[in-house]
Structures are given as structure tokens and as C-alpha cells.
Design brief:
nine-stranded mixed beta sheet, Rossmann fold, globular, 187 residues, alpha/beta, 4 helices
């Protein structure tokens, strides 16, 4: 599989490199103005953030949103997309969802409830997944997305109804969770 991995300055890049050993992977580190190299790729993975300290509502010195170019790319991309943590937030924000600060850092393995719709796509009723974030998505457009899983904090996993887009707030690339990255690449 040919994968474009957009590194939103994730702290877990080494996990992706280990998991993608048998694939052709191009890694692009995100910055505003990035020209995305999705041509010839089978899938685009939008990784988590954290390393550079920018959040969705942060702006550049020119007053543009830091992730504005990535959100535009999400809407225009003709490849399957998998978003993780910051990638999840970028996808949801591109489609108009509000991203809210939860007031504290959510970190560690936590239980996530699979929705009724999610039971058609996921092998478990409850997922135990690693999380590391300060922001959450509470709702997405029901016309565009199916909610596959949620927690007391917010939405944990969504799937676009007409495009090949799936995204999780949790980190399937971190070992020890119920779902792993390979499963999400096939969902």
C-alpha cells in the first residue's frame, strides 16, 4: 500500500514507522502552505499533533488558521483519509464541527463506547484505547457523518457517509488498545 502520512508534529511518529514497515510511506511534516503529495497514494493518514504546540484555533503570523490548508486539503482530497487525534479534529473542523477545550489533558488508556451504528463496523462494544488530547468534538453533521464511538468527553470515532473518511480521537497507533491501526486502515 502507498501511504501519505501527514505528520502534524505527532509524538508517536516512531509508532507509525514501525506499523508501516511493509508499505511505501511518504511522510510530510505539516506546516501552513504545504503542498500535499497525495498523487499515486492509496490512502492519506493525518496523524496527531502536539509536538509544535499549535491547535486548530491558532493562527499564523498572517492571521490565517494554522491548519487551514490541511482542512482545505481534506475537503478536496480524492483519496481515502484516516485521521487520528489532531487529524480527527482537522477532518471534523473542515466539515464545520466545533472543537472545544475540555479544560485538562486527557491521557492514558480509556474506555470508549461503540454506538449502534459502530457495531456494524467494529468488532467490540467497548474499546479501550490510548488518548492524549485537550480538545474534543461534541457533534458532527448527521447528514455527513456516522458516529461510531463516543465517550464522556465527546466523539471518539466518526465515518463519513459518502466519502472514504474515518477518524478517531484516540491513538490506534499506540500498542495495547482494542483496535490497532491496521484494523482502521481496513474499516
Amino acid at each position: 500500500m502507498k501511504i501519505l502520512l501527514i505528520d502534524n508534529h505527532t509524538d508517536h511518529l516512531y509508532n507509525f514507522q514501525d506499523l508501516f514497515l511493509n508499505h511505501q510511506v511518504e511522510i510530510q511534516r505539516y506546516r501552513p502552505g504545504l503542498q500535499f503529495h497525495s498523487s499515486g497514494k492509496d490512502i492519506v493518514v493525518l496523524a496527531g499533533g502536539g509536538g509544535e504546540g499549535f491547535e486548530l484555533k491558532d493562527t499564523t503570523e498572517h492571521g490565517r488558521l494554522w491548519y487551514e490548508d490541511e482542512m482545505s486539503f481534506v475537503l478536496a482530497c480524492d483519496k481515502p483519509l484516516l485521521g487520528i487525534c489532531m487529524g480527527f479534529e482537522v477532518i471534523c473542523a473542515a466539515y464545520g464541527a466545533q472543537i472545544n477545550h475540555v479544560g485538562h489533558l486527557i491521557t492514558g488508556f480509556r474506555n470508549t463506547q461503540v454506538s449502534m451504528v459502530g457495531k456494524n463496523h467494529l468488532p467490540h462494544k467497548i474499546l479501550k484505547q490510548y488518548e492524549h488530547h485537550r480538545y474534543a468534538v461534541q457533534t458532527v453533521s448527521a447528514k455527513q457523518f456516522e458516529v461510531l464511538a463516543h465517550s464522556g468527553t465527546g466523539l471518539e470515532m466518526v465515518r463519513h457517509k459518502t466519502r472514504k473518511i474515518i477518524a478517531s480521537q484516540f491513538h490506534p497507533e499506540v500498542a495495547g488498545g482494542t483496535l490497532n491501526l491496521a484494523h482502521l486502515l481496513q474499516t
